[in-house]
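Our consortium's second objective concerns turning raw sequence data into structural hypotheses that experimental partners can test. To show how far this objective has progressed, the report includes one record in full. It was chosen at random from the queue rather than selected for favorable results. The single chain below, 335 residues long, was entered without modification.
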Amino acid sequence: MQHLILGGGPAGIAAARTIRKAKSDAGIVIATDETEAPYLRPLLPDLILGEARDETILDPQGADLAEKGVRLLTGRRAVRLDMGNRKVDFSDGTQEGYDVLLIATGGKPEIPAALKKELPAIRVFDSRRDALGIKERAGLPGGAVVYGPGYLAIEACRALRGTKKKVVWIKPDLPKYGYPIAGELEASILDDVRNRGARIMEGDEIVHVWEKGPDTSVVLTRGGVEIPCSLVVIATERVPSVGFLAGSGVMVGMGVLVDDFLRTSAPNVYAAGDCAEFAGKPKKVGRINFGWRSAIKQGQLAGENMTGGNRRFGSEQENYFWALFGFSLLDRARK
């Protein structure tokens, strides 16, 4: 039986390893739009800081996939799901068939209109390649502007202050998806960010960015403040990558709608990780964009159920939010 997994992040890899444990003769293919070996996304800030290297952020769970008989296809972005023929079309013109499919495509940052520009100063905080570009740009004179509402922006501020950059964090209103950071936790984290020397502009927005010189740009806020800088980091929420499912018959809300067993509306199609949205659940226990631990747990459960299991996923809040790669949110912010 052929198991096709779309996405080479923690959910996809965890599913592949679980399937292999259950079925020694199963065909397993992971197709990912990344062009390099799986890596630990939570360590990207440490790559910017110089506290981690390329080889130290590699995901150890992905190291022996070939030995376990898992085919890893890189540079394959899914563009269409043909459920009738049980095939997925990819951006490079290739196709892969499946008997059972897992959608674990994660998400991509939501970029506001004012930052959709091809300016050298504007960098998205998303991938390993992005982190290396931010690190290089951080070496230029001048300050940095970080834009985003939550955890990723906190991590960007932490990393850039560690490189001795002057940082202005433009923090828009509450996140649209997942849990807002609120109450005493938010106050503690914001105080810590300020104590590091970052300026926080809460409830503001970027309305325009333009180049002032070869290495200098200017950010204009909704409040009319002009901020010269050499770097603008987009650290916004990650929106589920589910556009390729249009017209497929798989039900989609913000993410791929799943039940407690991670089954979608389509037969033999599952979803896990940052692209999965639990149907019929209160928003407070729905999909979360940055839950590394949650993605692994969902991937393991999806892999189990794809091979005949019948286990539910727990919806406790801690499954989604409080721990990322072994650190609590506050500890991670203060690291």
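The partners drew two points from this record. Residues 292-306 form the longest helix (15 residues). The longest strand covers residues 206-213. Both points have been shared with the crystallography group to help prioritize constructs.
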